[in-house]
Amino acid sequence: MQGNLLFVGCSHTNGFWGYVDDDKKIQKVVWDENNYAQIYADELAEGQCYIYASAGACNQKYARWIRHMLNIHDNISGVVIQSTYWDRWLLANNINLEFTQLEPGHFTQQCKETDNFILYDDFNTVNYNEIEWNEKVKWASVAKYEEGCPETHGGYEWLGFDYNYMHIKFHTEINTHLKHDEYCKDIALIDAMCNVPVYVWRINDRVQFPVSRFDTFGPLKNVKVFDTPANVWIKENLDIDIDIMTKDQEHYNVEAHKLIAHNFIPEVLHASK
């Protein structure tokens, strides 16, 4: 099978799972064996693969990761994007209170290298001056939206300016057309950066995809989209329900990831439109 692939994704490409220990504390495991990308690299690929993934990552991260990988690896034959949930975003802080220009690989850490793969993740900071982290909607902080907008509800006195950040973020950005615009801009940028095929797919049917258009900002020359989520495709084609094959409430076990690596990923590589 095709080698020298770059896989990017969130915790589902990061070998992640969590559990509660005997002291009732949440423990997190990363780069465990429940990782379709590592399985593909070890058991199918004909050349070393590169896997860049981070638990909780948002789609905004991917363009930067891909740019850095293209900068340091000149043999990448294709990019496989595990598209993730749209209710995530990036936050950052600069303790010097100044604008900073960072290189694409500024936060990159190499976690492990074998003959078959190299694993990459992000540091939250490397110097304690620039800090970056992934965030997602905290649903306990989101209520019914009644604040309106500045144009018609208060102008500079709009309640939303000083109200619950998570509540306003969800209602005025995450749950609007802006997320579709943001996603399609990232896809357009990735398409323009890459001179190799880019395969876009999703791990389950809870992950958002554009309803009809990925090419809002222009024709896509390299991006190929596989519409059917992995869990649905495996159920329809193999009659196996991987949604009951889990390590925790969100993440699939190694048996499910083997099905994804051996059956679904080859289909994505050959059947994407």
Outline of the structure:
By secondary structure, this protein is an alpha/beta fold. The protein has six helices and eleven strands.
Topology:
Elements (H helix, E strand, L loop, with lengths): L4 E5 L7 E4 L5 E4 L6 H8 L5 E5 L6 H13 L5 E6 L4 E7 L13 E6 L3 E6 L7 E7 L28 H10 L2 H17 L4 E5 L20 E3 L4 H9 L15 H18 L2
Parallel strand pairs: 1-4, 1-5, 4-8, 5-10, 10-11
Antiparallel strand pairs: 2-3, 6-9, 7-8
Helix pairs in contact: 1-6, 2-4
What top-tier CATH class fits best?
Answer: Alpha Beta
Q: What is the average of the pLDDT values?
A: 96
Tally of strands: 11
- Envelope shape: globular
Across the major sheet, the strand order is: 7-8-4-1-5-10-11
* CATH architecture annotation name: 3-Layer(aba) Sandwich
Task: Tell me what the structure shows.
The chain is an alpha/beta fold. The protein has a single domain (5-137, 178-271), classed as Rossmann fold (3-Layer(aba) Sandwich). Helix content is 27%, strand content 21%. The chain is built from six helices and eleven strands. It has helices spanning 36-43, 60-72, 165-174, 177-193, 230-238, 254-271, and strands at residues 5-9, 17-20, 26-29, 49-53, 78-83, 88-94, 108-113, 117-122, 130-136, 198-202, 223-225. It has a seven-stranded mixed β-sheet with strand order 7-8-4-1-5-10-11. It has a two-stranded antiparallel sheet with strand order 2-3. A hairpin with a 3-residue loop joins strand 7 and strand 8. Helix 1 (36-43) crosses helix 6 (254-271) and helix 2 (60-72) packs parallel to helix 4 (177-193). The radius of gyration is 20 Å and the shape is globular. The two termini are 19 Å apart. The relative contact order is 0.16.
